[in-house]
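User: quick one, sequence for these tokens?
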């Protein structure tokens, strides 16, 4: 029987899973003697089956199946949904000892024993960790970096860490993709700044074959490609990066969780998906549009120089 059950947000994309990882890691530290079951409406078990903090994944869409996923009188339920009334009701009916969820003016929010106010201007990964901090205090940056370093650890002997990481993909569509040409122009600006010493690693996913072909055709010795690496190996790639520049995409949240200097390029301000800190910057169009490719490489370059002058304190 599972002692701790986590109900994930009803989303199926890579990034939606990645932002839950630090919360799962600290949850397991809180209750290292308990079995942790993760529950989703969608078939996303491949993102959880190899995590060191998860003992079981269950796909459950129907209300009755979700009820069965939470045993009666389990030790704890962590609910990462912030809008549905379903999950407070499940916790009320199954009565786990600890019931954690977001306060978002739902009728069922009164049933939580521990809650964190939902704020749509707060990075989702940080919100998840702050929810757990209502049970036991912890440092979110230390928690996040430790989680991704733990994931990376089995691969540190076989995966070479990157210097500067560029992530030009974006699974949600072209409107979120700052063009590869801009990344290439940015690499040139950075290389001049570093006096030719920079090494650039492009992280690409299954939809970016054409980008891989383009980058390889350039024949540049300072360019390297990491293609379709799983999350743990991406954490090993980025664990000591001097700089990461990314579109809004799944791998960007590994970089943000590793607490390395980070610049995110967005089509519009999106604080739920950008973790604002002194060594991070978000760059958005400044011309009154949501056209991401109106962002000039020089603006992103200036943001890079700002974060390179800051050193993370974790």
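Assistant:
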């Amino acid at each position: 029987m599972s002692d701790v059950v986590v109900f994930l947000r009803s989303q199926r994309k890579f990034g939606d899973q990645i932002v839950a990882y630090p919360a799962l890691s600290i949850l397991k530290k809180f209750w290292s003697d308990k079995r942790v079951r993760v529950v989703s409406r969608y078939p996303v078990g491949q993102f959880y089956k190899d995590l060191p903090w998860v003992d079981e994944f269950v796909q459950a869409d129907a209300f009755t199946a979700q009820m069965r996923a939470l045993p009666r009188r389990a030790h704890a339920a962590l609910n990462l949904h912030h809008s549905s009334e379903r999950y407070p009701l499940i916790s009320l009916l199954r009565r786990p000892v600890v019931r954690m969820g977001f306060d978002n003016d739902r009728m069922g929010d009164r049933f939580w024993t521990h809650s964190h106010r939902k704020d749509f201007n707060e990075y989702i990964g940080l919100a998840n960790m702050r929810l757990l901090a209502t049970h036991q205090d912890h440092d979110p940056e230390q928690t996040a970096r430790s989680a991704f370093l733990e994931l990376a650890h089995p691969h540190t002997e076989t995966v070479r860490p990157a210097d500067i990481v560029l992530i030009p993909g974006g699974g949600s569509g072209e409107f979120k993709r700052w063009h590869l040409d801009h990344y290439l122009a940015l690499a040139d600006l950075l290389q001049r700044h570093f006096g030719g010493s920079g090494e650039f690693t492009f992280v690409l996913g299954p939809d970016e074959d054409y980008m891989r072909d383009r980058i390889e055709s350039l024949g540049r010795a300072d360019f390297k490609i990491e293609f379709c690496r799983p999350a743990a190996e991406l954490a090993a790639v980025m664990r000591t990066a001097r700089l990461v520049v990314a579109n809004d995409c799944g791998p960007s949240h590994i970089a943000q969780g590793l607490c390395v200097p980070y610049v995110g390029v967005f089509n519009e301000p999106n604080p739920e998906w950008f973790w604002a800190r002194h060594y991070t910057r978000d760059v958005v169009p400044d011309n009154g549009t949501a056209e991401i490719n109106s962002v000039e490489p020089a603006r992103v370059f200036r943001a890079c120089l700002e974060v390179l002058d800051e050193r993370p304190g974790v």
